[in-house]
Amino acid sequence: DTAVSQTPKYLVTQMGNDKSIKCEQNLGHDTMYWYKQDSKKFLKIMFSYNNKELIINETVPNRFSPKSPDKAHLNLHINSLELGDSAVYFCASATGFVYEQYFGPGTRLTVT
Amino acid sequence: GQQLNQSPQSMFIQEGEDVSMNCTSSSIFNTWLWYKQEPGEGPVLLIALYKAGELTSNGRLTAQFGITRKDSFLNISASIPSDVGIYFCAGIIQGAQKLVFGQGTRLTINP
Fold it and tell me: Could you list the pLDDT tens digit for every one of the 111 residues in chain B?
């Protein structure tokens, strides 16, 4: 009965590879987000989708492409992974744009 | 760039002590949220504030939305070991549609 779930929990890969992270929420929310948390624990928004429509794109490199097949799912695909992409990526969801956001457990991405 | 200043960055206290942390900004906020993050987990929402001057409690936690709408504080009374973690303030700037986060306050409790 997990509210916001992400897979995988851990992802270790080499530079140059392409990888995807999946997110699903069963809260009935219509807005979903991707955040990046760096090694200093700073959380920064990357993308926001509302009802499958891209709302926020925070100057993230084009190598990152979110995809929302339906409003309960928001996946993140990363091309040509770089060392600097190593971080914890969190998915979150909310009702509407400006309300309480609920976070998933995170995916720790390590690029070697 | 960073729009929220959260302090202190870390706290080392004894079990039973009260804790206070705050966030300030030069921008006006419509919403303030306080989250707690434990190792290996995502941030968990503790308290949400929507009106200037609002004071809200959640058990031993109390948070307030500053009158100027540029700050918020979180107090934890009678701390216990399970309060350990990183506490984040987050806010929605007036006219914006995204959360900005503070740098976090890492709370460590000595039993």
Answer: 457 899 999 999 999 999 999 999 999 999 999 999 999 999 999 999 999 999 999 999 999 999 999 999 999 999 999 999 999 999 988 777 788 999 999 999 987
Rounded CA-CA distance B16/B109 in Å is: 9
Residue A21: list chain B partners with CB under 8 A.
Answer: none
| Chain A residues whose beta carbon lies within 8 Å of the beta carbon of residue B30 | 98
Cβ within 8 Å, pair A100-B33: yes
CA atoms lying within 13 Å on the CB side of residue A14: 0
**Residue A61 corresponds to which tokens in the numbers above?**
């490199």
Tokens 């309480």 label which residue? A100
Q: What are B's interface residues with A at a Cβ cutoff of 8 A?
A: 30-31, 33, 35, 37, 40-45, 48, 86, 88, 90, 92, 97-101, 103-104
